[in-house]
């Protein structure tokens, strides 16, 4: 498949990636380069394989017993499919944020430093600095700086989702996977998270699964349109939404199906 890409470095490279759940093939020979420090959106009708593909990037599908994968995914030129790949190390490099905010029933502070403490960081000054840095980057610092010991579950859903993003970025991953991160939020909180995504790409590569085509068009630099387990079209978001090359892409973005 011909891929147009700007001069961004490649963060992730997929080579003929296929995936089966038991007998059912859910991904079909996907080859793709995900540009670094950009937002790449995965769009397509329900069941086309968006979340399955996203979960390949940090090997979350490994937990599913019936799942089998062929092909390769390279993170900075190294295969993440290799036997012996340290999954904890991989997930430190590839963080994930889910549809529903899932903070732990702990203080705001303890949520943000959770990953750092797992890594053995104990120095209070280092942790304090990381909390401020991550909360500022997640556009939450101003709202919570005086209440860092408050239970995270008392925050609004939009604040909780920003806290979860702060928790994910506190360990400074290279890639942040976002699986419909705003679908459980109100329109204002959605806007805040969308603005946040565009600032986060300065430091991280973002891959966003969204059902919301307007959101993909608003925030992403690149879009992959998926259908029945295949990437039908991948390119610059502006181009894909204005002059799609494939009939199936055009039908989807004009609302003729899906
Ligand atoms: N754990 C699983 N076991 C078996 N089949 C699965 C599993 N997870 C997903 N599938 C199937 O794989 C296909 C792709 O599902 P996936 O959730 O990746 O699609 P999606 O595009 O993210 O859908 P949606 O937009 O509805 O969330 C679907 O047919 C789904 O039923």
From TrEMBL:
Residues 12-253 form the ABC transporter domain. Keywords: ATP-binding, Cell inner membrane, Cell membrane, Hydrolase, Membrane, Nucleotide-binding, Phosphate transport, Translocase, Transport. Pfam families: ABC_tran. GO terms for cellular component: membrane. This is Phosphate import ATP-binding protein (ABC phosphate transporter). The keyword Metal-binding does not apply. Gene3D superfamilies: P-loop containing nucleotide triphosphate hydrolases (3.40.50.300). GO terms for molecular function: ATP binding; ATP hydrolysis activity; phosphate transmembrane transporter activity. It comes from Erwinia tasmaniensis (strain DSM 17950 / CFBP 7177 / CIP 109463 / NCPPB 4357 / Et1/99). One of its GO terms (biological process) is phosphate ion transmembrane transport. Belongs to the ABC transporter superfamily. Drug exporter-2 (TC 3.A.1.117) family.
């Amino acid at each position: 498949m011909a891929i147009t890409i700007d001069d961004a470095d490649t963060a992730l490279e997929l080579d003929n990636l296929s995936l089966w759940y038991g007998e059912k093939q859910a991904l079909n020979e996907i080859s793709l380069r995900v540009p670094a420090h950009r937002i790449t959106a995965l769009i397509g009708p329900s069941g086309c394989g968006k979340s399955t593909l996203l979960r390949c990037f940090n090997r979350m599908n490994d937990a599913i017993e019936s799942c089998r994968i062929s092909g390769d995914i390279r993170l900075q030129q190294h295969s993440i499919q290799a036997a012996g790949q340290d999954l904890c190390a991989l997930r430190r490099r590839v963080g994930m944020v889910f549809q529903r905010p899932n903070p732990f029933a702990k203080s705001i502070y303890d949520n943000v430093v959770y990953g750092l403490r797992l890594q053995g960081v104990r120095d209070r000054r280092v942790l304090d600095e990381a909390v401020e840095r991550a909360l500022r980057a997640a556009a939450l610092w101003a709202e919570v700086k005086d209440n860092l010991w408050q239970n995270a579950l008392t925050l609004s859903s939009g604040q909780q989702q920003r806290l979860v993003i702060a928790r994910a970025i506190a360990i400074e991953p290279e890639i942040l996977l976002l699986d419909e991160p705003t679908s459980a939020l109100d329109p204002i909180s959605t806007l805040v998270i969308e603005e946040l995504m565009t600032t986060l790409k300065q430091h991280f590569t973002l891959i966003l699964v969204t059902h919301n085509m307007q959101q993909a068009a608003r925030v992403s630099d690149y879009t992959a349109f998926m259908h029945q387990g295949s990437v039908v079209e991948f390119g610059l978001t502006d181009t894909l939404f204005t002059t799609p090359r494939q009939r199936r892409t055009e039908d989807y973005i004009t609302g003729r199906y899906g």
